[in-house]
Amino acid sequence: MEHESFTIQVLLFARARDLAKADSVELRLPFPATAADVRQAIRECCPQLEPLLASSALAINHDFADDSTPIPKNCEIALIPPVSGG
Amino acid sequence: MEHESFTIQVLLFARARDLAKADSVELRLPFPATAADVRQAIRECCPQLEPLLASSALAINHDFADDSTPIPKNCEIALIPPVSGG
Amino acid sequence: MIRLTRDPIETHELTQSVLRPGCGAVVLFLGTVRDLTGDERTVFLDYEAYAPMAEAKMAEIEADVRSRWPVGEIGIVHRLGRLYVGEVSVAVAVSCPHRDQAFEAARHAIDRVKELVPIWKKDHAPDGQSEWVPGTPLTR
Amino acid sequence: MIRLTRDPIETHELTQSVLRPGCGAVVLFLGTVRDLTGDERTVFLDYEAYAPMAEAKMAEIEADVRSRWPVGEIGIVHRLGRLYVGEVSVAVAVSCPHRDQAFEAARHAIDRVKELVPIWKKDHAPDGQSEWVPGTPLTR
Question: Which residues 11-30 of D are in CB contact (within 8 Å) with A?
Fold first, then answer.
């Protein structure tokens, strides 16, 4: 039996966008998946983001996620590098 | 031998002016005199200022005075009730 | 810059006047006439000052703030005369390189203004009664 | 009131908008573009935001401040796009009955904005070099 999977877009900003040379990356994840799985998939698909991953947060539907946060099938996901507003 | 004496004006503000019904009071002091002597002279000449004296400061030439501060012959003296600016 | 004025305080000009390229933070404090003190309603306040001493004390406060924080510019303005509810009675604007400095400096300045500057206000209630606001005795 | 804008921040209108008859204290904080960071000279900064999340976080900060202090009104505005030295990048205005409340509330709001709101700035130096300002990792 094949595991169910789904596709997500991860929005990229600031230094993450510059490193990836893209506004977003598309990832394929097994279902169910957590934010930790998203991190791992980013690591595999975009090694150039590696130096930024540890200090970055993931946001799901405009809220910060923990590693254990589940990823809904239809959601907006973003990688949030250390913020420097103000 | 008569002691030397001199005359000072003490400027009055806010509640002090209302209580004394005057912008200033004239006092005759022995020379030399201190701010404590000014307080005592105010007490004697203007008993209506008594309730305000303990919480008020004296200013000599625009600076706050201690009881021991000497009173120069030509100076500007003011009674400063508790301030309420702002 | 320190100033006593009987005209409305130009808070925008004051704020603009403290901006400095080396300062990333500006804090402006405005004191305004409140409608209520406890249960007592205010219609207007009459402010009076012992003006030459008030200016001397405000200048001392400016110097004190500059000695404690890396101030780009500081402005302290107090209004005198009759002020109705909502009007600005005092304004302090400070610029510093960083925000912790600007917040601390502005707070210190307004605290000192309220403690040390010979200015008094008389509160006028809706029933026509008026009284001098008790204020704080000098502690120094 | 929270807002992201690409236009110059109207700091005077913001300040006026928080005045309330029951509030005797207003604190306005302005963050401006500094010419130097350490020894590094800045010509301009480019600010970008993850706008919908930035607005959501700013609204959360407004709600948090209102829950902690008796706020009359609060406004938080952040500018985006290219800002030259001296320009205002962020403004926070708060009114409260008393000054300790207004100072604490404004300080808390700007601290939280700098910690939680997904906005980034890229520093452009006189030699044409540019780099993203390192910023603070989220600690939440």
Answer: none
